[in-house]
Amino acid sequence: MSAIQIKGRYAPSPTGPLHLGNLRTALLAWLQTRLAGGHFILRIEDLDLPRSRPEYIDEIIRDLRWLGLDWDEGPDAGGPNGPYLQSQRGELYENAFERLRAQGRLFPCYCSRKDIAHAASAPHGPAHSGIYPGTCRHFDGSGDTPKNRHAAWRYRTHANAIELRDEISAPLIQVMDTDVGDFVVRRADGIFAYQLAVAVDDALMGITDVLRGADLLDSTPRQLDLLQSLGLPLPRYWHVPLLHDAQGRRLAKRDGASGLAPLRARKITPQAVVGQLAASIGLLARAEPLSTTELLHSLDSAALRARLIAAATSPDSRHATLA
């Protein structure tokens, strides 16, 4: 694949300010794309409108720009693959949904979480806890349905093995019906689920390389299965280690992980943050202030990949902290 074909992306959710772990992943995604001479896209994953806030979109863009990152396409830059807000891409997801439904790959599910938990605990429930037991598989969206319940729509998995050969993490193989089970692609409230939306977006935006956190590794075979069913191209995946705090806990918005605001209040420069983030995953031997451009010029694609692999396999790097 020639360098001009490379397309990467960063796709944050506007459910709060970006914390330092989010920013490190953004930096790594940008580095991977720019080192390959590629085209970088910013996409905002605001599909879950009840939890998303418009003011966070502005803050995300401001924080990424402050750090020194740029993009060729995005909500503020425009481009040929828009819209760049998932909340405005519903027609694209609807088209993919109908294609899957026409293939017989979708069925409506009326089960509550309590129903699923009860079925899973039964003597003849699924072998792996948490896997959907198939209660509603006989529904096709027509005929009699349970009263007073809105249906979620699930993707009907088969006994096919999906293999992910990640650029960073160890190979992963999942047998879809026994390791994953039928999964939701449209929620009961009508919102399309992450798995369908992200797969469609990456394909239609021409993304060749998806670099994101290792917490999403396990869900990737679902996206690969959807892409194959839709006849869409498969990207390469780079699942990188997460940033942890001083107690070894992964940073998370729901736990109130702080972002750039406290650092700005202390007059810490973007160069200092970039240096700390780079050192925390082994791109620098020690933290020292430098710009994103200086960091970019200090690496090549092979060196970046080698250092990310080392970080993924080293306990010290996997639990790296940011002072």
Task: Provide structural commentary.
By secondary structure, the protein is α/β, with parallel strands linked by helices. It folds into 2 domains: 3-80 and 198-318, HUPs (Rossmann fold, 3-Layer(aba) Sandwich); 90-196, Rossmann fold. It is built from 12 helices and 9 strands. The chain has helices at residues 20-35, 54-67, 90-102, 113-120, 176-180, 194-204, 220-230, 261-265, 270-280, 292-297, 301-313, 315-318; strands at 7-10, 39-42, 106-109, 152-155, 161-164, 172-175, 183-186, 209-213, 236-240. A 3-stranded antiparallel beta sheet has the order 3-4-7. A two-stranded parallel sheet has the order 1-2. α3 (90-102) crosses α6 (194-204) and α6 packs across α7. The chain is globular, with a radius of gyration of 21 Å. Mean pLDDT is 90; it is low at 121-125.
Question: What descriptive keywords fit this protein?
Answer:
2 domains, 12 helices, 323 residues, Rossmann fold, alpha/beta, globular, two-stranded parallel sheet, 12% strand
Number of helices: 12
Q: Could you state the CATH homologous superfamily of the largest domain?
A: HUPs
CATH architecture of the largest domain: 3-Layer(aba) Sandwich
* Largest β sheet strand count, sense and barrel closure: 3 strands, antiparallel
What is the CATH T-level topology of the largest domain?
Answer: Rossmann fold
Separation, N- and C-terminal Cα atoms: 39 Å
Question: Could you say which overall geometry the principal axes of the C-alpha atoms support?
Answer: globular
Q: Mean pLDDT, rounded to whole units?
A: 90
Gyration radius, in Å: 21 Å
